């Protein structure tokens, strides 16, 4: 079971300007890990050293007891889709290191108390995606997702405390990161979306009113690089906190708040985005949206409406003027 042991864990690293701990030299530490044969999965490799330090989330994933992934368990390294799929469904806490390019088909479940982390800058998952379904305490970090046939990452069915961090997403079929069906306490940070259309959906549908009172998600320091829409598209969730993201050349829109969602859009940088924010979208009823401290370069005026509940956690947003440099250099796989 997950316990909040942040104060007792040895950490070597630095604090980002947004207040999140980031490990130094994580790629080198992963590669240097000693390997021995796994007794549970003969084709995977069990790593003798302690789990790599992946940092701590800022935002909603730090609430509700925090998100530590597989930190309380062992570490195993995989290099094939079959190995990855098998390790993700194990019952015990585990850090699963993904090495090289791994091919999946369709959506593949990950169980509670897991960290799925790429080794070095080239770790990739192609063809399929990861399904966080009725799971708690999951971290997905430092992976290049490409050419997925459904979603790259889907969080659903009441999953809680999920951190999706420092991944890259390109050329997939549907959502890069979709969160829905009463999921809660999620942070999506430092990801890079490019050569892709539908980025991040939050909320299943206009009819799924069960999402009300859930879908508390923080999106920060993500690079939406020419992607078309859903950065995010929100139904019902409150408070959805969207801060310090870099929006560039998004053809359709940036953020949409619908179905009475409450969205705080803070200190982001919008560059060449005709519709930075929408209140209501397509056939969905209007939500509420507060925009503060944003920069709109070559962009249209934001749509805003109503009030939004404040977030309960501490955070330190960067100056919006600095976001293009900070995020373009730091977002995506390989930038831990």
From TrEMBL:
GO BP annotations, alphabetical order: polysaccharide catabolic process
Matches recorded under PANTHER family: PECTATE LYASE 18-RELATED (PTHR31683), PECTATE LYASE 21-RELATED (PTHR31683:SF18)
Superkingdom of source: Bacteria
Database matches in InterPro entries: PbH1, Pec_lyase, Pectin_lyas_fold, Pectin_lyase_fold/virulence, PEL
EC nos: 4.2.2.2
UniProt KW keywords: Carbohydrate metabolism, Lyase, Polysaccharide degradation, Secreted, Signal
Species in which this protein is naturally found: Lipingzhangella halophila
Pfam hit, one: Pectate_lyase_4
Family matches, as Gene3D superfamilies: Single-stranded right-handed beta-helix, Pectin lyase-like (2.160.20.10)
The protein, known as: Pectate lyase
Location relative to the cell: Secreted
